[in-house]
Structure formats: structure tokens, C-alpha cells
Write a structure and sequence with these properties.
Blueprint lengths: L7 H13 L9 H15 L8 H5 L4 H20 L4 H4 E6 L6 E5 L24 E5 L3 E10 H6 L2 H27 L3 H4 L5 E4 L3 H15 L3 E5 L1 H5 L8 H9 L5 E2 L2 E5 L17 E6 L5 E13 L9 E14 L6 E6 L1
Parallel strand pairs: 1-10, 5-12, 6-8
Antiparallel strand pairs: 2-3, 4-11, 6-9, 7-8, 9-12, 10-11
Helix pairs in contact: 1-2, 1-4, 2-4, 4-7
């Protein structure tokens, strides 16, 4: 049965659910979802359960690889948007090729209110300032994988495994870029030394930092840190609820009334080094998401020829254009680095 190209987005939605491990939309079970994706790949592959090198050579696999491209992109986007932590700090925009979305940053401007007599308009004018437009540059990111042609020709299921692995690899790269930005903020970006404190743990200094961030934004703040980082926050007030938190989750769920939110620790790709600094506690005010992800245009799969490789392996290069940037008003974020 020929693949219905109009169903490509529906298939991609189900595939994104399958690869992210979340509950499938449309009341599908995981097994049903996997079977649906597998059958769609077979249909898009001219009804064959294997890759025919002659079909690749003759350009008969365009629908198959268009489906793979769409599935990977959708899986990456959905995986980022549905991540409990990233969803709190990361705003994701998917745009057409060539589009450069503009993020407007508006500082909390407080104007002087004067006491005047009735009918008096003789006031000092105050200029409206503090609005800035920012764009996030995007760049191509790519991964090149290969598979033994005999195995790939023998079973289309190996391709479904590769799709999931490639999508998760791009998600890990986005995590890495978020971590680089998260930990590389300068004092100037934070709003000066007032919002960037260092030293041994000082309860009063942390309370003061929280107050500065909330005063600058007019918003309630939360504290972000890894499990180890949050566990370094101690308090002279040890209520039973706080003791329960320390026993159950490893850190106080609140510090002096301010919510603590765990940053899930991850390994750097290919190493056992942690991605996030356990000594850094970050204070963020308001619902605004300070880190921006822009995914631009359509992905691209480029196939090599297994005849060109001495070991008869099939190469795939998958590329997607995206960028991660920091866009926030001064004073929205504070940082406490515990030595």
C-alpha cells in the first residue's frame, strides 16, 4: 500500500510520543504506536521491509526519507517542549527558513509619581526606556551515522531504532547548549555584582539575593539548582515539613518561603562528567522563560552510497538548523556560587 503523504504529520506525532516515552495521543498503546510507525515506514518504502539499494539509487525513497526527517524534527521539538525542567526556562519557536523571530525584552521601569495640585500638569517628563529587541542566531547542526548494509537491508526495524537515537542525540545537544548558557552568564547580563554573589553558604545573603530579584521584576522568584546544589541550602528553621523534604527528595522544597526547583543532572556526552555545576544556585523571577530555542527551516537527510565505502556500510547525515540564546531583562536572574 502506498504511503499517504498527507498523513505524514499524524505519523510523526505518534512517533514523537513513542520515542519520548510519553502517553500516546489517540488512545494508542505503545505497541500500537510502534507498529503504526513501522508500517508507515514500510509503506513509504514502496511496501518493502528492507532498504533496496536500487531504490535509493533510482530516487524511489524520497517519501521514506521525508517521513524520517519529519519524525526526527517533531521528536526533538516535542521532547524539548515536554521536558518538565526545560519547559520552565526554555521558550521554543519553530520558524520557516530565513525567518528570524524577534524577542522583546522589557525591563521593569518604575516612574516617579509626583504629588500635584488639581489641574497641574507641570511635571518633569520621563522618557520611556528599557525595551530591547533581540534575535537568536541559528546554525546548522548535524550528525553522521552509518549502518552495516546487510543489517539495514534485512530489517526496517533497525531504521526505527536509528531514528529514535538520532532524535535523542539532538535533544542532548540542546541540553548541552542550555547548560553552557545557563552557567556562562556574565555579571553584566545578570545586572551586576548585586545579582552575582559568591562565597560560603550564607542564609542571609541568599534571602537578600532573592529580594533583589523580586524587587527588580515585581515577580515572585524560584531557586534552581541540582539535587546536590539545593541540598547545600541549610536553614536555622527546620520545620517537620522541611525534614520530610530532605528525607524524601534530598533538599528543602522551600527556602524561606521560596520554591526550590531541581535541575536534573546529566552527563556530558561520552563522559561521566556532570553537565551542570553543583555549586551554583540560580534565582529566577516570574513566568518568563529566559533561554530561547529557535529551530529554523526543514531538516535535511543526505545519503551516502554504500558502494563508496570499502566495508559496504550506508552513511546518513542528518542536519537541522537551530540556535539557543539568553534573552532576559537585567535583574530577572540572580546567581549564588557556593564555594
Amino acid at each position: 500500500m502506498a504511503f499517504d503523504i498527507t498523513k505524514i504529520n499524524d505519523i510523526s506525532d505518534v512517533a514523537a510520543d513513542v520515542y519520548s516515552g510519553k502517553a500516546l495521543r489517540g488512545n494508542f498503546s505503545t505497541e500500537d504506536g510502534e507498529r503504526l510507525v513501522y508500517n508507515a515506514l514500510v509503506d513509504a518504502n514502496n511496501g518493502k521491509t528492507y532498504l533496496d539499494p536500487r531504490d535509493i539509487r533510482d530516487g524511489k525513497c524520497s517519501t521514506l526519507f521525508a517521513l524520517v526527517e519529519t519524525i526526527i524534527k517533531k521528536t526533538v521539538v516535542e521532547g524539548v517542549r515536554n521536558d518538565p525542567f526545560l519547559n520552565k526556562i526554555l521558550e521554543t519557536r519553530v520558524v520557516k527558513a530565513g525567518d528570524k523571530p524577534v524577542f522583546v525584552v522589557k525591563d521593569a521601569n518604575w516612574y516617579t509619581v509626583s504629588e500635584v495640585s488639581g489641574g497641574n500638569q507641570a511635571l518633569r517628563r520621563q522618557r520611556i526606556v528599557g525595551t530591547e529587541e533581540v534575535t537568536v542566531p541559528t546554525h546548522w547542526h548535524a550528525v553522521k551515522i552509518y549502518e552495516e548494509m546487510e543489517r539495514l537491508l534485512g530489517n526496517m526495524a533497525s531504521m526505527t531504532e536509528n531514528i529514535g537515537d538520532v532524535a535523542r542525540s539532538f535533544q542532548e545537544d540542546i541540553w548541552r547548549q542550555v547548560a553552557v548558557i545557563w552557567q556562562g552568564l556574565t555579571q553584566e547580563q545578570l545586572g551586576g555584582a548585586t545579582y552575582d554573589i559568591t562565597g560560603s553558604w550564607d542564609e542571609a545573603a541568599m534571602v537578600k539575593l532573592i529580594q533583589h530579584v523580586e524587587a527588580a521584576t515585581g515577580q515572585r522568584a524560584s531557586i534552581y539548582g541540582t539535587k546536590l546544589g539545593l541540598s547545600k541550602m541549610t536553614s536555622g528553621v527546620a520545620a517537620n515539613a522541611a525534614k520530610d523534604d530532605m528525607y524524601n527528595i534530598g533538599y528543602y522544597g522551600k527556602f524561606r518561603g521560596t520554591n526550590a526547583i531541581e535541575v536534573p543532572q546529566r552527563h556530558k556526552a561520552g563522559t561521566t562528567d556532570f553537565l551542570f555545576n553543583d555549586n551554583v544556585l540560580t534565582v529566577i523571577a516570574g513566568p518568563a522563560k529566559p533561554v530561547k530555542l529557535v529551530i529554523e527551516g526543514n531538516p535535511l537527510i543526505n545519503l551516502g552510497s554504500y558502494f563508496d565505502n570499502q566495508d559496504l556500510t550506508q552513511d546518513y547525515v542528518y542536519g537541522q538548523k537551530y540556535g539557543v540564546g539568553y534573552v532576559a531583562a537585567n535583574g530577572m536572574i540572580g546567581r549564588n556560587t557556593i564555594s
